Fold:
Amino acid sequence: MHPTLLKAKTVIKPNRTKRKVMAHIPIKSDLSVKSFEAIVDKLFVFYKVKMNKTKSLNVLIHARMKIHKITIFLILIISFSSSSLINGDSSSNTSPIKNDEQRLSNTVLAVSDVMPSVVNIATKTRVQRVGYLYDWWRDNWTPYAQDLPPQESAGSGVIISQMGHVLTNVHVVRDADEIWVKITDKDGDQQLYQAEAIAGSLTTDIAILKIIPKKEGELFPAAFFAKEGDLLLGETVIALGNPFGLGGSVSKGILSSKSRRIADIGEKLEIPDWLQTDASINPGNSGGPLINLNGDIIGINVAVLKEGQGIGFAIPIKRVNQSLSRLFTPEFLDDNWFGAAISTDERPPKIIKIESGSPADKAGLKKGDELIALNGIRTKTFIDISSNLVGLGENRDIMIEFTRNMQSKKVKVRLIPEKAIFNSGLIRQKTGAIFKPLTSELADALNYDSTNGFVISQIDKDSPAQKAGLIPGLIITSINGEKFNNIVDFARLLYAKETGDEINLEIVQLRQRGLFVRRSTGKLSLKLL
Structure:
């Protein structure tokens, strides 16, 4: 008998009915046998010997062979395989592949898809020293005056467009003088890029960064949003991050709540429906994505409760979309007028509103049109549309392909500078008054405690403003129930109005009485020219 093999205790006899016989064959060498299986048919006996670790042997023997011959044959096969394994010649076995397939769970696949889009964000903030004594020291002892070292912080983010737009939290990049983004690819190689913050909302803690590419036309791996209502209580969720530039970080849990209210987190955030999870979210992962098993982003991680062990929170994708619909537009970022509001939760994205007289309106676009391509580039989401419109520049033409009533159409749209249209001249033309933004200096001069609104500086004779009772010095706090802080937004509202349309103004009048200022409020209606 072969020195490394003990005789099998099971005797196999041919039979017309199939049956399984299991036997354990211990082996003294590194190559051990886990099980011995034989299936007997009327003509053949199929032997399957499972080795330890990753190897197995399949042997088909004619049923009429005697058992001792079969045993000898198996001994020869196993002996040969042992020698081959020692010499490293049996790498073609398929068991490792089966093991890998079992390990490739939905969690692993989702992480593999999204992790290349998860970035580390590092910031530097210069410490400002102000005051008379420091100014005197700096002016007189400059060679000896040293600046304080910059404050550094870190967080995470996720790339949402191939153009290099990154979504993160405002508190991750607030007041930063320098922003650096580190990207780690699937092979573990890291690339460092400089980035700039282009927009942010303090009420939702959402910020948008733009990576500065190292070469023209460079594209970045982007992740995708889930549908706004696609949330299942108790479903598996994964919190991803790239804390401290050490590489990707993964924690798994369940969706504990789809609409959690948090009483006080030290920030004035208007988020009434936080996502809650037991997946670990630490400060270094703040700004990273919370994803489902499909690999879609359902929220943006925020570490808000230090005392809440095992409790993590994320901004739901619905609130993220609401912020992006205001922030991630050519009007907000570039002061270029496009004039079409795009749905954030439909694929392909649809036009949900057209501003009268806008470039989109004049080009023939209508509410309900599905946008499928910009300048020949396919667009599947709102992010695709906005990332191609933002940064395009003023007076630039863009070819838009869309479908309407199942028919494909193309139009050319030219974005125009907002200030060329929406300015004080348009407001005066419509109202007969000159409005000035209420700056802090102007508010101080008027002894007024707010900078929200406009001040009327001049009224034209026989104008709609004069007929409505407006006078210089009045403060306009809202127009049609909306608050405006800049001329462009006010002028855009008036641009869409027709002659004879009314606007409702809320006003504040200040009267000086000795050392005191008397304030009175009221409402007026004004018919536009």
